[in-house]
User: Fold these one by one.
Assistant:
Number 1:
Amino acid sequence: MNYRHIYHAGNFADVVKHAALALCIDHLRLKAAPFRVVDAHAGIGRYDLAGVEAGKTLEFSDGIGRLFGVDAGPVPPAAAAALAPYLDIVRKLNAGGGLTLYPGSPEIAAQMLREDDRMIFNELHPEDRGTLAAAYAADRRAKVMGLDAWTALKALLPPPERRGLVLIDPPFEQPDEFERLAAGLAGAMRRFATGTLLLWYPVKDPAVVSAFYGAVRPLNLTKTLRAELLVRAPADISKLNGCGLFIVNPPWTLSDKLGALLPFLAERLARGAGADYRLEASV
Ligand code: SAM
């Protein structure tokens, strides 16, 4: 396991993922009934953007750095509304000024969940799991686990509340990660058919992404969204040219919100010619 999210925290891919995650949790909060967030690949929770690791790559400067702070430029109202639940958390973490702290997915859940909601943070890397456990040790809504994500999902779904969200956010270190995703997704949806599932993937070679969608089509999931952002045309398929989210059982408002957000992000987060977005219901 070589992947450490600290080198990538707050990059363009985190912006897309975390903005959508915050919108989904915001929607779950509309009903009084408690819900649960199951974060299968949790990372460490909060990221120090002023630290050595983030400073080595500076990936955040072309992600959250283009949205947050005095130099970031104006945001059209509909995109600003879609970004608000996410940027409110970034703002709260950086209340002292500047941009030095970044919320990972556990922190977004911790900031948004209510007293009776629950969050399970699963992280396989022992050192990162230790950091994560220390960060949320005092939070009685949180439980930290260290299983392989797919085993964790088998053990944790369906949640006792029968309401909630599952985040699947693997590091894509393994060549067969997309195949494992399709199989893991099928298992998760069998166990928790009504849950909202948010699955993140990289877009390097679009043909690989198409093959993944070919593999999930036979699952006949009726309520889905495919949301992608390309920061440049995928001419060189060795590069991270974009990222995508496959969302099963999305909140009914999410398509409109991402429809306002993605064109703006394609412009603001572009890294080269051919930046674009894609948003499709029921793939
Ligand atoms: N979800 C986090 C966020 O948005 O802030 C980022 C997660 S990062 C992309 C992926 C994480 O998955 C890494 O911290 C890595 O150590 C962990 N990981 C890798 N393989 C795993 C596995 N099989 N099961 C659980 N966690 C795994």
Note: Residues 1, 3, 5, 17, 41-43, 104-105, 122-125, 128, 148-149, 169-171 surround S-adenosylmethionine (CB under 6 Å).
Number 2:
Amino acid sequence: MKILVTAKRVIDYNVKIRVKADQSGVETANVKMAINPFDEIAIEEAVRLKEKGIATEVIVVSMGTDAVQETLRTALALGADRAIQVQTEQELQPLAVAKLLSALVAQEMPRLVIMGKQAIDDDCNQTGQMLAGLLQWPQGTFASQLVIEGERLQVTREIDGGLATIALKLPAVITTDLRLNQPRYASLPNIMKAKQKPLAIITPAQLGVDIAPAWATLKVTSPLTRKIGVKLNSAEELVAKLNDLGVLP
Ligand code: AMP
């Protein structure tokens, strides 16, 4: 069974995000980038399925400028067998990504697609669901456990206040939650080996997909900063202060 996994290049979660002066988006120049953390979990799960002999090949896909090749090489070092870059300079929204993935699924014929539940840059949490809709495949979203037995899958899903376990049939789309696994680190020998693994490049036009955006971003702003508070020493001081502010009846 082939597994397709996705790896989005996002700003590293440790970086303090800065909004661009013209409010058109966030600053990405000279900022540390990384694989979307939920996608690292997707790669780890796919690689473990290969190690268990359930998967035969793990193909990793990333979409964007040539910078995503670095992301793909990291995924290859983590254990994916080959990589595909969908090359574009254009901003990709979830529906465009889902359509591109759907076209790749038609070419590669995987039985399972594993993706992150959301990208930590746009927090859309839409792409996996849209892909399952386009393919008319069942979906197990927010997976915290995945059990595969033949053509059947059991997915434990993280839902409000508990867990839900659902049964699906392959082919299927899975999106990962944080507790699915603990991703490994890439070892130096595997980073070296990853340089030799195949990385194919394809364009949206070659896949016959229109990637025109479905919405326009009007502006992006930073959260409001809280006014600095005052430290008081006693309840009396607090009452006096509230009286001064005129908030007591
Ligand atoms: P989103 O719906 O934007 O929150 O993204 C959900 C998931 O879709 C991510 O965790 C990725 O696995 C995948 N995805 C979204 N955009 C891309 C991209 N440009 N390249 C590869 N995967 C992507």
Note: The first strand starts at residue 2 and ends at 6.
